[in-house]
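U., I forgot to send this yesterday:
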Amino acid sequence: MPRFKDQAICIRHFDWSETSQVVVLLTQQHGKVRGLAKGSKRTSPSSVQRFSGGIELLTRGEIVGVIRHSSELATLTEWDLQDDYHHLRRDLAAQQMGLYAADLVNALTAEHDPHPRAFAALDRFLQDLQAPGQRQAALLRFQWDLLSDCGYQPELWQDVHTGQPLPQRAAYRFDPRGGGLTEQVGDEKWEVRRQTVELLRQAASGPVPSDADPDTLVRANRLLCVYVRWILDQELPTMRFVLGGNKG
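Result:
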């Protein structure tokens, strides 16, 4: 029964009883951990000391627990709250984007599969949501980093089927089944504007430009969101926060 201590961000939580919770955490070194925090909702001094008053969704802290291979749930014994991303509690739009990020992480990562890059990307994204004018750029960076870390990085420079360099075009075709751009035609190919492809290439090579066109940012985020929807073969409830009110 290995004991572990790690940095963690809460991406799911459910009531187990009046005094306990089941939580899903993205940890820095141990990947996604699903655990039972007995007594985490108690208000006694000893419980508050062990769990900082409870484990809330979209908060970061240091977790201590025991992973039992005979059980689906780890036993969580301590939680030291370190960042509650307070701006997410004051701004509905920021909270919605944070919930989408948590859903994405939960859907794309496997339990106990370490993803330190995904952890860093989620932590940075939740912090970056403080700046309303930079949220779309932060979302693009987060989505790209998460897809890359989970092995779903789209191919943007070569034809995903032939491996040949792609000529410059006014619009490209994206093949979700192949995982990138292609010259081939077909019903499942999505047309993507050149400006959107160029922005995605910039995101793949480094920071998203601070002066990026807002409409192009929205389109790039929608493309990656729809690509994830295709990968999962389902639409996550929070995808509406990216797809619903944005421009096409």
